[in-house]
Amino acid sequence: MPAPTIQLQDTVFGHLGTPIVGPVNLTISPGDKLLLEGPSGCGKTSLLRGILGFLNKLQGSYQIDNEEISPPAIWHLRQQAGYISQELQLGTGSVRDWLKESLPPTRELHETELSRFQLTKAVLEQSLEDLSRGERQRLALVAMLAREPQLYLLDEVTSALNESLRKLVVSHIARTQATVLVVSHDAIWKECEAFRSYPLPVTS
Amino acid sequence: MKGAPDISWLALASCFLLLLIPLAVTARLRLGLTRDLLVAVCRMTLQLILAGFYLGYLFKWNHPGMNLAWLAVMLVAASGSVLYNSALRWRTFIVPAFLALALATLGIVLYLNAFVVRLENLFEARYLIVLGGMLLGNCLSANIISASRFYQAIDQNRSAYESRLGNGAPLNVALRPYVKDSLTAALRPGIAAMMTMGLVSLPGMMTGQMLGGSDPGVAIKYQIAIMIAIFTCTTLSISLFLLFTKRVCFDPQGNLRTHLVLKPK
């Protein structure tokens, strides 16, 4: 199943009639790698949440594969999506149980998938609360990649990683076939040639 | 079977003398509870005198329709008053709360009446209203606590919830940890109560029956039945409550309609 084409035309996303981000004009084709830019509070995170249907479209048009958005289309898009939020709340309990819930049935993580981002199998025996923020970021990435989504929506996923890990993550994501939307204040994404910038208009 | 001897009104009045002890403690330690305590004692007394009055009539008439109507009045009053004191919006929850409690309470009481007590008239006031009221009183607060906990947890952990949805989880899967947490919290006290039953505490219904002249061997059978009934009723009513409210409390995209669910802070 190929990644969807997402078209936003004068789109304003908001909550209970209050606009939060937009108007946005943006076409995201399969395989695009996009870095959303703009000052803090301009709505980068909200745009990701709007695309995933956590905010409502208040104005303009939001199309997926040339069809105007609808609740079934949103649920379908989420199945194709891999989303890592800035807050990175993974919940409580053991890493093993969390993975069981996060991955498709029968799918288990291989040692190589963990070691790709310098995690070991020992992490599986830990509880989520005991992981550092950096470990949680890497675990969330490993689990997301294992689901093989076609659309990544990544919100500040390298903020707690050291430089070598950040490079590792960015270069891995730049090489994937998936469509990628990144929100990050980290210059390393901007330096990566695979990504084009989309400056978000500042709403008054 | 000989019932408990009647207490004269004068003798009952002497019981109020005992209140001098808590009144002295609250006054001495300036707990600021004196006024509330006096109001509560007066309300309790008046409400129970009234209850004795109407229960007397209900038992005398023993009309199935009337008995059911009275159970409905208890359900409305109970769900309304507890919702009023919870974090949940009255308007959104009153109908589902009523329906969930009504279905669970009525279902379990009728089962008890039919298969355990084996009554000829399933709607007999003495059992329908008394057992129904007891189930209701015991599972109502567990219901509201678990529902508040469920919706507040989703509201407070919105990012975790959205992460589950944003990674393709269907609504029921995304809600699972919150359902688990709220049900566990609501059911745990019931399990703890059963663990210590008869050892640490002699439950009210059993003592009441024995004071009323029942044989302890009969009283414990009723107590066992009621403990199982309460636990089942709690589980059933919470599950139904969450099921009934899910449709209203989440939009078609699975987002929590916080403005309809929780009272403004």
Please count the helical segments of chain A: 7
Shape of chain A: globular
Structural class of chain A: alpha/beta
The fold-level CATH name of chain A is Rossmann fold
What is the domain tally of chain A? 1
How many DSSP H or I helices of chain B?
Answer: 11
Strand content of chain A: 25-35%
Terminal Cα span of chain B: 56 Å
- CATH architectural arrangement of chain A: 3-Layer(aba) Sandwich
* N-to-C order of helices and strands of chain A: EEEHEEHEHHHEHEHE
Biggest sheet strand order of chain A reads: 6-7-8-3-9
Number of strands of chain B: 0
Features:
heterodimer, A: 204 residues, alpha/beta, Rossmann fold, five-stranded parallel β-sheet, four-stranded antiparallel β-sheet, 7 helices, 9 strands, 31% helix, 27% strand, globular, B: 265 residues, mainly alpha, 11 helices
SSE order and pairing:
The complex is a heterodimer of chains A (204) and B (265).
Chain A: E1 6-15, E2 18-28, E3 33-37, H1 44-51, E4 56-64, E5 67-68, H2 71-80, E6 81-84, H3 95-102, H4 111-116, H5 133-146, E7 151-155, H6 163-175, E8 179-183, H7 187-191, E9 196-199
Parallel strand pairs in A: 3-8, 3-9, 6-7, 7-8
Antiparallel strand pairs in A: 1-2, 1-4, 4-5
Chain B: H1 9-15, H2 20-28, H3 34-61, H4 64-84, H5 90-116, H6 125-156, H7 158-166, H8 171-196, H9 204-211, H10 216-249, H11 258-261
TL;DR?
Chain A has helices at 44-51, 71-80, 95-102, 111-116, 133-146, 163-175, 187-191; strands at residues 6-15, 18-28, 33-37, 56-64, 67-68, 81-84, 151-155, 179-183, 196-199. With 204 residues, chain A is of the alpha/beta class.
Give structural notes.
The complex is a heterodimer of chains A (204) and B (265). Chain A is built from seven helices and nine strands, in the order E-E-E-H-E-E-H-E-H-H-H-E-H-E-H-E. Chain A is of the alpha/beta class. Chain A has a single domain (6-197), classed as 3-Layer(aba) Sandwich (Rossmann fold), CATH 3.40.50.300. In chain A, the strands form two sheets. In chain A, strands 6-7-8-3-9 form a five-stranded parallel sheet, sandwiched between helices. Chain A has a four-stranded antiparallel sheet with strand order 2-1-4-5. The radius of gyration of chain A is 17 Å and the shape is globular. Chain B has 265 residues and is mainly alpha-helical. In chain B, helix 4 runs parallel beside helix 6 and helix 5 (90-116) crosses helix 6 (125-156). In chain B, 28% of the residues are buried. The mean pLDDT of chain B is 89. Chain B has helices spanning 9-15, 20-28, 34-61, 64-84, 90-116, 125-156, 158-166, 171-196, 204-211, 216-249, 258-261. The chains are: A alpha/beta (204), B mainly alpha (265). The A-B interface holds A 16, 49, 52-54, 71, 74-75, 78-91, 101-102, 144, 147, 149, 153 and B 157, 159-160, 162-163, 165-170, 173, 176-177, 252-255, 259.
